[in-house]
Hints:
two-stranded antiparallel ribbon; two-stranded antiparallel sheet; 35 helices; 8 strands; heme binding; DUF1553
Amino acid sequence: MMSRGIAAALLIAFVGNCYAQDEFHFETDVRGIFKKHCFHCHGEEETVEGGLDLRLVRRMVEGGDSGSAIIAGKPDESLIVERLESREMPPDESKQLSPDELAKVKRWIAGGATTARPEPETIGSEYLITDEERSHWAYQPIKRPEVPAVQHAESVANPIDAFLLAKLEKHGHQFSPKGTPDRLTRRLSLDLLGLPPEEEWTAELQTSEDPAQWSKLVDQLLASPHYGERWGRHWLDVAGYADSEGYSDVDADRPYAWRYRDYVIRAFNEGMPFNQFIREQLAGDELISSPLNDLSLQDVELLAATGFLRMAPDGTGGAVDDAQQARNDTIADTIHIVSSSLMSITLSCAQCHDHRYDPISQADYFRFRAIFDPAFDWQKWKNPKQRLISLYTDDDRKAAAEIEEKAKVLDAAVAEKRKEFIQKTFDEQLAKIPAEMHELARAAFAADAKTRTPEQKDIFKKHPNLNVSAGSLYLYNQKAADELKKMQQEATDVRNTKPKQEYVRALTETPGQIPTTRLFYRGDYAQPKQELTPAGLSIVRQASGLPEIPVRSSNLPTSGRRLALADYLTDPKHPLTARAIMNRVWMHHFGAGLVTTPTDFGVLGDAPTHPELLDWLAAEFIESGWDMKHMHRLILNSNAWRQEVRNNTALQEQDPDNHWYGGARLRRLDAEAIRDSLLTISGELNPKQFGPAVPVMPDVVGRIVVGQENTDAGRPGQVIDMKGEDLRRSVYIQVRRSQPLSMMETFDQPAMSPNCDQRRPSTNATQSLMMLNSVELIDRSRKAAAKLIKEFPEDSKRRIESAWRQVYGRAIEEEEVAGAQAFVQQVTENLKTQADYQAKGDKPPARSPDEESLAVLCQVLLSSNEFLYVQ
């Protein structure tokens, strides 16, 4: 009988002879199956189950406790096939191989169980990454590709068009015609600002003979303060922005989270280079130059930027079932946010075991976690309140101390006057009792209540009117009590002039405190194993040659690990960051990314539809100085972006998902754009920027609405007048994880658990019902109608024409005018017959039939697909 050693030698020789042949190979066809289903027990652990290691073919031939696992060329006689077919292995029913996977294993064995190349002599403790894994597109260096030549060069405005057109032409197609000026203007405004366009923008584009007019409009909108509100909201999605802690049903408030939101909006508006944006969010605390107890305004912004690392759900400020688990959950969610937003990888899948599909080991996960451990330190944890940093400066403290001294002078005057009034009142009451009791009464009054003798206590029981105090003075002398109250209010008013104590929600490290990071066996913090030092991903290091993250910075009081990570991620040699960001930008402009799985560039994610274009965009982004507005201009000035909605049957049959970009996508407005557009059209939008979140609350029927309940009123439904704050843009509305705004939730505003990788618009009956019955929409429609009547008091036709321009962003057609006029007239006549719209004596109706019928028309327009979708 052939020994295992001889069999292994023969197999190695056989593999060498078959090298480079076009066959089923272990590395390309089978290893991924075993990695997914089997490596967890047969390769990853220090002790492999049954003595069988499936990471190398040689070891399969050598076999384990039950003998050789495979016999090359004989799948039916191979033990591994027997175990797989009997479903004995894997033992977990949910991890069984699919029929297709099992067929691949059998075919590979039948073909000789070949490998693509000679296997390594040893693996050791080092995580094995194959050449196939290293060759995955996402790990290749970013290189600017040559711009392809195309047949229809006249359709190319910039290189973006050339890359897209080259693929279309390959399949016999071209770009769709350019969209009309009104549709393009509306699309551009909603894309960059999240608001409907101003009427003059369309008029200028339609009438101008300047070929650069479109580019000027793009620049104008990029300079708008509303740009940062729109594109900042996109980033807040992937950052998991929320104004509440989540994690448990308590969902405690985050009263200062808004500073991070405002930082993001300002960064986009100011055109901050994106590599700097990343550095400040990951390590703003390591960039500050002023002390934490006397921060400059610039350093306050840097600390606010680290709110990016404080957005994950965090229940450690209250009672939780397992406090240590809650701490580690917060760290894990933070790592998920960082890796999904900046690298587009599913790093969290390696928290409990080696990644089942991508070349990411569990050790890689914990090395990456080690970068953040000095700031989080789960064994010396700081809860959310302990992480707040006061914004009081030395000048504030000095001013507060001076004001307090003034207030103390007033306090002393109040105390002296109070003493005087109390003594005078006591003397008045003393005169009402017999003179022989005066001496005892005076002694009792002068003594502390706790030290009075029984005799002294007794006199107060017999004559309670002698027990004059600050709290009872008003019973004897209301005028004196009022005077004291006025004097005390003066002291309070002085104290109220102190600089207000504000805070920033930030992440910081304690200098000199660097915890040890250990790998958690199967992700369980109670089972720590080997110590690990900080590092990026092994696959990135092997593919790019980037240096590792240092254990400690030599020129910072803190570890410097997060600052090193920021430099590492924004190094031009890093293959993931620029691709990930550009893919997201493309997704928001076109409705789908060049990689349609924006947080998964791995094996299970989709391959890029235009890999050369993605690399060109990433290279251009880096070479532009990470200039986001520059990339916007390139995309928005391309002919590809300015196409009309695709309407080509032949192209649709060949490319049903529009991955070739042979026309624009019909896209529904997201929740924020719907609400903000309604407020704009009704003329109510409050343009105020920044500051604390506008609160939300449940209304009388349990829906979550914008507002603040008046708890002092004592009556359900009583709300505080928001003084127009409730009419601000949606980005400023409080994001409570447990109380999403009902209207926004209906239109798919995402839950931050922990973040949102991609908005997924739905279509359902609830949306139509809300647009039909929503009190908010009815109110917006009435306000819009009132505005139209005020603008055109004597011309009903012009009201209708203006309504079309404001809601749809286009001129009304003649047949639509006639239909709308007939509709308004019919509704008016109907309303005139209803009591609510008839005068009661000399009292006119609350709303006239004419105004209400126009409001109904506005509601119809605002509920229509043409309003809710962008063409």
